[in-house]
Amino acid sequence: MLRNMYPPGCRVELEDMEADPYVKLSPGDLGTVQFVDDAGQIHVSWDCGHSLAMVFGVDHCKCVMREERLQEILQRIQAMPFESLEKMERYVMEKLSGVFPKISFQKKEGQEVFVDMGVAAFMKKGLGVAIQYETDSQQHIFIKKMEMQGQDIKGKFVFQMQQKQR
Fold first, then answer.
1. Residue 88: which of 146, 39, 47, 41 has the closest Cα?
2. Beta pairing partners, 46
3. CA nearest 102: which of 49, 59, 145?
4. Which of 35, 93, 106, 107 is deepest in the core (most CB within 10 A)?
5. Smallest Cα–Cα separation from 102: which of 12, 23, 30?
């Protein structure tokens, strides 16, 4: 049951955790589920740079986004016209920054933008979305294609974390 509630790669938000003297996490911190072990511990790579297992029934987190939900959001975005590239980026930021606070946009050659989610999620390292678009005579943006990209992660992979800056 826990493995269905917290599939590998889903994004979680910490609600409550028993105090740990070595790891300073606060309610609202975000992370990515690595796996659920046979003892029912939910192993999470937290965006702040720590990897820590949560004990079910003692610690509490909620799944804030599964891959299917991201796909639904991307499909809705793809169907929408935008007045400008900036408005499209603002809309994407509004929809996703709560779950991916390190999200950023990189303009590519031609009519393409890469949305870097800033973390590993959904069993992909370097998760991002490539957006190809076209414009009309008034420079309105129409999305032609959106594709989730990233390096696939196989099995129980411990996400590499960035060193905490001092």
1. 146
2. 31
3. 49
4. 35
5. 30
State the burial class of residue 13 (Cβ atoms within 10 Å of its Cβ: 0-12, 13-18, 19+). middle
pLDDT tens for 72-92 read 999 999 999 999 999 999 999
* Assigned token pair, 80: 């929408």
Q: d(Cα 46, Cα 113) in Å, to the nearest integer?
A: 27
pLDDT at 21: 77
Q: What is the pTM of this model?
A: 0.78
- CA-atom Rg of the chain in angstroms: 18
Strands (E), the chain: 11-16, 30-36, 41-46, 51-55, 60-65, 81-82, 104-107, 112-116, 124-135, 141-152
152: which strand partners?
A: 124
Domains of the chain, each with CATH number or no CATH: 2-65 (2.30.30.40), 67-152 (3.30.310)
